[in-house]
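Quick log. Single chain, no ligands specified.
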Amino acid sequence: MPSCNPSSAASSVLLAGLLLAGCSPKAHNVGAGSLGGTPASKASAAGAGGGLGQTIAVGAGPQKTYTVQQQPPAGSCHYRTEGGEPLPDPKCTPGAISPAVTEATLKSTICRKGGYTGGVRRPVSITSREKKLNAAPYGYTGRMGDAEYDHLISLQLGGDPNDERNLWVEPADPGHNPGGGINNKKNPVETKLHTAVCSGRTTLAAAQQAVASDWTTAASKLGLN
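-> predicted structure:
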């Protein structure tokens, strides 16, 4: 009976003969680093959705020392609007979450007494440089003092502190007076979702999915209005 283990160099004639003899060629596994593999640095969180229903990327998490992140090419990102409110380009800013914040670690991270975000924030020396760099991809030309360099998935919802996929220059709300400083409607939504996560009214993954998809409808989608 012919062997059922042809080498990769077997001819098509030999392969056909093996098939007739009842043998099936073995499938080859595709590992990380080959086609279809996902580098660890671009891993995604199972069960969490990204900007348009995609899985949310997992960033590096809190670091002792932060570095300025590379930004998309100038003019490559485009704002969206919902009810007049600005939303980021899902291709440039789909969101990214911290591996340190999970449903199992809520009490020791974002829901712990004494606060969490202050210990993972980046220094101004990093944020000020990144903010200016990020304005170019989005074509933002307004007053920098009126725009927030925003975490799409906020730190209080387990967003990654310094992943470029989770940061964007958020323009001021419609009707904002130039020179009036940062004042937007996204921050109260994030606080409402944080309270709901820590009280058990919604899951962390659901809150992250909702705010990454469209922060203007996140609370209503979760039944929190």
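The radius of gyration is 23 Å.
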